Amino acid sequence: MNADYDVVVIGGGMVGTTLACALGDSDLKVAVVEAHPAEMEWADDSVDMRCSAITAASQQIFTNLGAWDAIVAMRASPFREMQVWDAEGNGAIHFDSADIAQDTLGHIVENRVIQAALIQRINDFDNVALLCPEMLEDQDTSGELVKLTLKERGEITTRLIVGADGANSRVRQHAGIETHGWSYHQHGIVSMIRTELPHQETAWQRFMPGGPLAFLPLNNGCCSIVWSTSPEHAEALLAMDDEAFMAALSYASEQRLGNVIEVGPRAAFPLKRQHAATYIGNHLALIGDAAHAIHPLAGQGVNLGLLDAAALTEVLLDAQAKNKNIAATHILRRYERWRKGDNLMMMTAMDGFKKLFGSDNLPLKWLRNEGLTIADKLPPLKNQIMLHAMGYKGDLPALARHAAV
Ligand SMILES: Cc1cc2nc3c(=O)[nH]c(=O)nc-3n(C[C@H](O)[C@H](O)[C@H](O)COP(=O)(O)OP(=O)(O)OC[C@H]3O[C@@H](n4cnc5c(N)ncnc54)[C@H](O)[C@@H]3O)c2cc1C
Questions:
Q1: Domain limits for position 168
Q2: Which of 127, 175, 178, 366 has the CB geometry, 3.0–4.6 Å to 281, for a possible disulfide?
Q3: Distance CA 276, CA 140 (A)
């Protein structure tokens, strides 16, 4: 039986488009189904509210996919140092890329920039079709071929369906895959700001009892912010006029960069931990937020999803090269085994940080302040933390390694 496609990726966000590019120029016929057309052009002086801290490993993936130069041409802002401090005490830690002989710790990139660069790349591949705007309405994975019902185009068939459709994944729900997790009872407020003092290409993060506040440097002199706080406080912050919001931000950041003097539009996102019970099903795989959602405090969410896409690519292309069935459960299981443990470890670490820094418990407060102060004086430990945060640890897929392609 011939299918219309070998792989249909539902969701053309940053993770789904990465998988599609990674399968570009292979002998697999691929389609990406995306509900909303991506923004491809914007005014030079505008900044997307949503930015991501991109690790060196993710940068390598984009480089190997031929998308990094386009990302840099649009805007990628390096950060070379990181200052983290505890609002309740004097614990602080400073990371410097020079200490591990690296030029940067990572880059802050607008989500729309990543997506536009990847979509430009998709258009270069004859074997990849972008079906957009288009919505997955239904899926039947019970037969030898997967039948998908799309809102506009009706029924199509594929050998493998990949859910890259975000935290509320329809693919996952249709497949009856459960998730484990909980709400953090926090919302993440994002915006773009300008401060009195220069950001010094440094990421600044203050841990407060209500949640962390991060100032992430952009190369137009502004900072992208993520302020995680209770839903009630988030609502109050969103309701403030610009003057009051800037004053609240200046106070919350202890004016480390002076006063906040300009602010863009604001939005809030509910934060939750969510992990799919399994990443695979009959002729089906989940990647990115469809498989796992984590707290943004260390900016790792999309980076984990990009590693999923790179690992799944490697597994599928290896199977294809050996004339094996790419959708067979034992093949997909390789992908799940590869990524699930690493993702779980990162989620657990984020939970630990969240609990440690949100605690009012006096011995814990003392411990975290002492811990930060001691860790700051231990270069080998700090270097290991930096290498982890840059994505250089664990079993990296070839696309994320320097020597790839
Ligand atoms: C406040 C905040 C700050 C963050 N900061 C960082 C950071 O600094 N670094 C980092 O690594 N991560 C960060 N993250 C996490 C990161 O944003 C997510 O991990 C990432 O966006 C997930 O990408 P994705 O492609 O898996 O899913 P999504 O971005 O959710 O994309 C899913 C896509 O699927 C499409 N879709 C959904 N359903 C259908 C359907 N039925 N049919 C067709 N299309 C469909 C949607 O339109 C969407 O385009 C942050 C998250 C938040 C909330």
A1: 5-79+106-181+273-360+391-400
A2: 175
A3: 20
